[in-house]
Amino acid sequence: MPGTNPHDHLASRAEVLWLKEPDPDPRSARYAAADKNRAYRDSPQPANARRPANWISALSGYEEFWRENGRTPRENTRDLATLPAEERRKGGWAGYQRKFEEKLCRYQIIRLDLSPAFEWDPQEHIWQKNFAAYRHHLELTGTPPYLNGADPAEFALARWFNRQLRQLQIGAQPKGRADQIAILLALRSTTGGSNHPC
């Protein structure tokens, strides 16, 4: 029954968004059907349904990994021996979606947009998450995060901000990010945190 699990809820939302506008690409209907009826995975499939069913199955596995681990599958790591093959495959699948976005049908794009696990630009997502966490800490405590060894999360935020300041000083910070760092600097001065070292 739709709506009984997160996947069904996402599939229903994606179908509603997809049906809002005419879509001349016949592939979208096949991907929507595969997403709606995941039973394709366990039963004989018509030839034109295999690829959509495999794609939906891969997306479902990617989202399941995210739900179970609290993070997305890694695509790479400095020590490849620590990256299990299954996780690398899931991460590689996501990288492939980003790389070949223009080849995806509209339903696939909508479904990826709705996925809580998938990000089109993971690095920008992480940067914005750190920005929000730093700002929240500043507004909540009235002081900037310190390089405090007793609190790993605070330590990581302080290091992140110091790296952003270094990039800002050497002119390596993109304008949008530089503007956001300026917001944090202004908040630091209004909360009395400007004299505190990170």
Helix tally?
8
**In the residues, how many domains can be counted?**
2
Any idea what the shape is? elongated
Binned, the helix content reads: 55-70%
Calculate Rg over CA atoms. Answer: 21 Å
Q: What is the mean pLDDT? A: 86
- Low-confidence runs (pLDDT<50, min 5 residues)? none
Structural class of the helices, strands and pairings?
A: mainly alpha
| Biggest beta-sheet profile | none
- Strand percentage, roughly? under 5%
Number of strands: 0
Protein name: Helicase-associated domain-containing protein
How are the SSEs placed, and which strands pair?
Layout: H1 6-19, H2 26-36, H3 47-69, H4 85-99, H5 106-114, H6 122-141, H7 152-169, H8 175-191
Helix pairs in contact: 1-2, 1-5, 2-3, 3-4, 6-7, 6-8
Protein name: Helicase-associated domain-containing protein
Region (Disordered): 1-52
Biased composition (Basic and acidic residues): 1-41
Structure description:
Residues 1-41 have a biased composition (Basic and acidic residues). Residues 1-52 are annotated as: Disordered. The protein is mostly helical. It has two domains: 6-114, no CATH class; 122-191, no CATH class. Helices cover 64% and strands 0% of the residues. The protein is built from eight helices and no strands. α1 crosses α5 (106-114) and α6 (122-141) packs across α7 (152-169). The radius of gyration is 21 Å and the shape is elongated. The N and C termini lie far apart (52 Å).
Summarize the structure.
The protein has 198 residues and is mainly α. 64% of the residues lie in helices and 0% in strands.
